[in-house]
């Protein structure tokens, strides 16, 4: 047994000796060393891929170049030596250090011809550079940071085929980078290039969008963008106050709900005309508050030339229409003036003869003999003089635009109007009762224009009484002083006991061309022109009306004109 054990030991020793001589143990060791090395390489590559993936997720479109570089700088040391990360840009052949991490590590005012960045950009190929002191003369290093840099991995950054700059990864250690590290740095540069270009594009789009929105909101007229299903997509929040209340109250996004408080599309909606014709459509709309709007509907087409939305622009033409109404009325007054001048010329001469002859006859008759004849002649004289006053008042009334403001007695202006219009109103069985304040002070105003306002009040009151069917028709004309808001006002009021004004029509009565009368009785211009006259004098017009009981129109003029 002992002999056999000895033989086995000898055989084992021989096998070990043969393994050592043939290098079998050495091969196994090299194999495991190589396997471990490859595993480490795979782990390093996986780590680098994870970093690239994480960076692509972490970088946002609204980041600046410095923020993007900072995000990359925090990740790189996990897989690559990195004490400095820099981004060099090129524009018109001039290089500049656009951003760096740490941010205050160094400054470079000029890149010399031998600089690594210039070589990489020129050759469009990355490289590893180990630097000596003479290579860093153009770099102004911040003494507060460790340095100087010894090793650089520099790769170009591309925009399509164009080199737009270079990415610098640097270390304080000599020989920190190997040739195989360039591939990862190039992938990193490509990723950063895409992120930076996307961020720039996003900023350009955002800037263009902001400029468009600011322009959109700067337009003083209301503008809306509505899709083909009546939904309001965008608006510039320029609605008048009375429309804004309705707009903000409604939760629905439908235009017919927000603008008209309806639960279905409006009858004859212009959107349907745009959809049918594909051309702009124009409408005029008067709101409940009396605002007159011109509406323009413009089609918006998509890439397939199909209608995708409609742009609506509101234009407030209330004041413009008032001016047009005043111009129309002025033209009518000018025609009346021409006619009145002709009538006065034709009538004044015979009227003078009639009055003069009657006065001569009165002087020729003895006072006590022909008393009846003298009274008849005096009636002729008085009627002739009244006719001359009426003609003169008509001429004065028609020349209102020619006369400037002057000191007037409001009661006298009222008497002039009543002398002209009393007969026309009395023939409608309407009684005019004046209540004129005898202590009324004089004011600065355009007398004929005040007459025009009063005439309009009286005609409207007569028309309201014609429709009422009342057995007793009364118009009261009043002048008085009123103290309000620490100011003294002279008030001219016309009150009737007619039909009154419906509540829904009351906000519209000063709107040009709005009238509740028949087409043959009114044009809708009188009150709008009257309000313009009142406002030109620093005053206003107040209306108090009860349906079925009557209305009161009051012209308020400040006693102290500005």
From TrEMBL:
Keywords tagged on the record: ATP-binding, Kinase, Nucleotide-binding, Phosphoprotein, Transferase, Two-component regulatory system
Q: Which SUPFAM superfamilies match?
A: ATPase domain of HSP90 chaperone/DNA topoisomerase II/histidine kinase (SSF55874), GAF domain-like (SSF55781), Homodimeric domain of signal transducing histidine kinase (SSF47384), PYP-like sensor domain (PAS domain) (SSF55785)
| InterPro entries, per database record | GAF, GAF-like_dom_sf, HATPase_C_sf, HATPase_dom, His_kinase_dom, HisK_dim/P_dom, HisK_dim/P_sf, PAS-like_dom_sf
Instruction: Name the SMART domains on file.
Output: GAF, HATPase_c, HisKA
Give the enzyme's EC designation: 2.7.13.3
Span-the-membrane segments of this chain are: none
Q: Which PROSITE patterns match?
A: HIS_KIN
Name the reaction it catalyses.
Answer: ATP + protein L-histidine = ADP + protein N-phospho-L-histidine
Please report the stretch or stretches of sequence annotated as the Histidine kinase domain. 342-561
A Pfam family in this protein?
GAF_2
Q: Supply the enzyme class, top level.
A: transferase
Gene Ontology molecular function, alphabetical: ATP binding; phosphorelay sensor kinase activity
This chain belongs to the protein called histidine kinase
Q: Which organism is it from?
A: Desulfuromonas soudanensis
């Amino acid at each position: 047994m002992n002999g056999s054990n000895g033989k086995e030991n000898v055989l084992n020793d021989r096998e070990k000796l043969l393994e050592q001589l043939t290098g079998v143990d050495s091969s196994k060791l090299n194999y495991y060393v190589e396997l471990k090395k490859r595993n480490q390489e795979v782990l390093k590559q996986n780590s680098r891929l994870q970093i690239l993936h994480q960076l692509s997720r972490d970088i946002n479109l609204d980041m600046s170049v410095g923020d993007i570089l900072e995000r990359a700088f925090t990740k790189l040391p996990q897989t690559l030596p990195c004490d400095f990360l820099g981004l060099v840009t090129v524009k018109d052949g001039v290089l500049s250090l656009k951003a760096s991490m740490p941010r205050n590590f160094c400054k470079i005012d000029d890149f010399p011809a031998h600089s690594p960045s210039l070589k990489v950009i020129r050759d469009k190929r990355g490289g590893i550079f180990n630097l000596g002191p003479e290579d860093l003369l153009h770099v102004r290093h911040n003494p507060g940071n460790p340095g100087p840099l010894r090793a650089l991995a520099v790769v170009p950054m591309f925009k399509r085929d164009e080199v737009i700059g270079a990415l610098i990864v640097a270390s304080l250690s000599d020989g920190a980078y190997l040739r195989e590290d360039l591939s990862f740095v190039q992938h990193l540069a490509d990723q950063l290039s895409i992120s930076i270009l996307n961020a720039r594009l996003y900023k350009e789009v955002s800037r263009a969008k902001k400029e468009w929105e600011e322009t959109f909101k700067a337009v003083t007229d209301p503008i809306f963008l509505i899709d083909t299903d009546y939904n309001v997509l965008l608006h510039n929040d320029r609605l008048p106050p009375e429309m804004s209340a309705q707009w903000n109250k409604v939760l629905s996004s439908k235009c017919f709900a927000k603008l008209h408080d309806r639960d279905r599309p409006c009858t004859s909606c212009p959107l349907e005309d745009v959809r049918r014709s594909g051309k702009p459509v124009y409408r005029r709309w008067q709101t409940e508050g009396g605002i007159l709007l011109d509406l323009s509907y413009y089609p918006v087409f998509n890439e397939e030339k199909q209608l995708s939305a409609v742009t609506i622009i509101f234009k407030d033409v209330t004041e413009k229409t008032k001016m047009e109404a005043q111009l129309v009325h002025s033209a009518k007054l000018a025609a009346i003036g021409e006619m009145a001048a002709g009538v006065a010329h034709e009538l004044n001469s015979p009227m003078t003869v009639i009055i003069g002859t009657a006065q001569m006859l009165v002087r020729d008759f003895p006072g006590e003999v022909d008393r009846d004849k003298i009274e008849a002649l005096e009636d002729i004289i008085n009627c002739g003089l009244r006719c001359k006053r009426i003609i003169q008042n008509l001429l004065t009334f028609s020349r209102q635009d020619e006369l400037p403001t002057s000191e007037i007695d409001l009661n006298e202006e009222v008497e002039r109007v009543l002398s002209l219009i009393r007969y026309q109103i009395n023939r409608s069985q309407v009684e005019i009762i004046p209540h004129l304040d005898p202590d009324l002070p004089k004011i600065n105003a355009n007398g004929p224009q005040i007459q025009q306002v009063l005439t309009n009040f009286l005609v409207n009151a007569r028309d309201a009484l014609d429709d009422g069917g009342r057995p007793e028709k009364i118009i009261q004309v009043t002048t008085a002083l009123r103290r309000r808001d620490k100011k003294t006002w002279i008030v001219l009021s016309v009150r009737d006991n007619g039909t009154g004004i419906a509540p829904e029509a009351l906000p519209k009565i000063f709107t040009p061309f709005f009238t509740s009368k028949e087409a043959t009785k009114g044009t809708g211009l009188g009150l709008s022109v009257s309000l313009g006259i009142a406002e030109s004098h620093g005053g206003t017009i107040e209306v108090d009306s009860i349906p079925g009981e009557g209305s009161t129109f009051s012209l308020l003029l400040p006693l102290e004109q500005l």
